[in-house]
Design goal:
The protein is of the alpha/beta class and about 450 residues long. The protein has a single domain, classed as TIM Barrel (Alpha-Beta Barrel). It is about 40% helix and about 15% strand. The strands form four sheets. It has an eight-stranded parallel β-barrel, surrounded by four helices.
């Protein structure tokens, strides 16, 4: 029987995002992001919750870092709020906003924790939405690159692990919708699917420009990554036919063919372009060369996946729906599919042709209906079950030679879960919002033991 031991030097971490935890939305020169506007709009978030206070991490970061040290993690992924650094989205830099991240990073380093900074995690400045419609405009890519230059030039002496953009499909394909109201900020209704794909293309272009800006602005050698959440196709059984079907489906499911493919191969998936037809985005000369920047590591945010089998139809495959009684965590989309972590790594090697690109599981975790019991504890056995199975899939990938270098659990603490407000809890620390007390859950102690023993326990 395997002991599920991980290699020496494996990076055990946790992850958060600025708007979800920081609060202090009007302090020290910060101006509104699209998420401030969206969450303040009636009926757009559950119970009308906003990130105005969130976990008050802006003021409580020292407490949270001490809890990370207690956990034993030596790596922390967080995001930087664009509207703290450049409140108008373009133009003058707000040094008070920069200073917050200097304090945070210095505190992390004092506790032996390596910072991994994501430069964009959905909270784009409202000023750019007002100016030209955010990601609908190609201008957004250049404004993003200028923001990256300003940030890295100021923090690059403290941070050497940079991630450009988090989950392009979520803030484009879920933030814009053709003739419908989308669920995510900026919540923009557009007239065609082509406009949605165009917004996503602008974001991928921003990633490429951001890679160039990081390397130009960093005062020291650094690591540059993209964080993507590909839709992972998993063969229902690992027969040659079903594996081939899953690899073929990976091209056209979701937006994989327009994000991961150009980033890693320098070209859109031809199968996706054929499927999109006139809805495909307009690509200017030089775009693909800009997008196809070398990466030091690729971040994969994986929570679930889609089962696939070979089929006698025009596509050669069939996507299989989950039935209502299939195991699911406390979100409508969070079907339990541990093998998705293994297959994400395998698709990078086999489907995208990158056998040696180092990989991070930059997010994985689950929501659970957590409550405090009579003893003041949160016994989240569902989360322990989920994490144990998913980490076993990471271990399998490493055992088979896939270069997975680390695992960042989502999330360190319960937080503002976007349109679900404070109702859905992903943390291994319970946040008591009225008091802002953090209570370690059973999963915190379990993950602590995994880190200590460097294996799945």
């Amino acid at each position: 029987m395997t002991s599920y031991q991980f290699p020496e030097g494996f990076m055990w971490g946790t992850a958060t995002a600025s708007y979800q935890i920081e609060g202090a939305v009007a302090e020290d020169g910060r101006k509104p992001s699209v998420w401030d506007t969206f969450s303040a709009t009636p009926e757009r978030t559950l119970n009308g919750d906003t990130g105005e206070i969130a976990c008050d991490h802006y003021h409580l970061y020292e407490t949270d870092v001490k809890l990370m040290a207690e956990l034993g993690t030596r790596h922390y992924r967080f995001s930087i709020a664009w509207s703290r650094i450049i409140p108008e989205g373009r133009g003058g830099v707000n040094e008070a906003g920069v200073d917050f991240y200097k304090r945070l990073v210095d505190c992390l380093r004092d506790h032996g924790i390596t910072p991994h900074a994501t430069l964009f995690h959905w909270d784009s400045p409202q000023a750019l939405e007002d100016r030209y419609g955010s990601w609908r405009s190609r201008e957004m890519a250049q404004d993003y690159a200028d923001y990256v230059s300003a940030t890295v030039s100021r923090l690059g002496d403290r941070i050497t692990h940079w991630m450009t953009i988090n989950e392009i499909p979520c803030f484009t394909h879920m933030g814009y919708a053709a003739n419908a109201v989308p669920p995510h900020a900026p919540g923009t209704t557009v007239s065609s699917a082509k406009e949605v794909w165009q917004a996503a293309h602008h974001a991928v272009l921003a990633h490429g420009l951001g890679c160039q800006a990081i390397r130009a602005a960093s005062p020291v050698p650094c690591s540059v990554a993209l964080v993507d959440n590909p839709m992972v196709t998993v063969p229902i059984s690992e027969s040659p036919e079903n594996i081939a079907a899953a690899q073929k489906a990976f091209h056209t499911i979701g937006s994989n063919g327009a994000i991961m493919f150009p980033v890693l191969t320098g070209a859109f998936s031809p199968a996706l372009l054929e499927q999109l037809g006139p809805d495909a985005p307009d690509i200017q000369e030089g775009d693909l060369e800009t997008i196809h920047q070398p990466l030091n590591i690729l971040g994969l945010n994986i929570y679930s996946g889609t089962y696939v089998r070979a089929a006698d139809n025009d596509r050669g495959y069939e996507l299989l729906d989950f039935r209502e009684n299939y195991p699911r965590m406390h979100m409508p989309w969070l079907w339990m599919l541990p093998e998705s972590l293994y297959w994400a790594a395998r698709h990078v090697r086999e489907t995208l042709g990158h056998p040696n690109l180092p990989l991070l599981i930059s997010e994985n975790g689950c929501a659970a209906p957590d409550t405090i019991n009579d003893q003041g504890e949160v016994i989240d056995l569902e989360r322990v079950l989920y994490l144990r199975q998913y980490l076993k899939a990471v271990h399998r990938a490493i055992e088979e030679g896939y270069p997975v270098r680390g695992y960042f659990l989502w999330s360190l603490l319960d937080n503002f879960e976007w349109s679900w407000g404070r109702d859905r809890r992903f943390g291994i620390l319970y946040t008591d919002y009225p008091t802002q007390q953090r209570i370690p859950k059973a999963s915190f102690r379990w993950y602590q033991e995994c880190i200590q023993q460097n294996r799945v326990v």
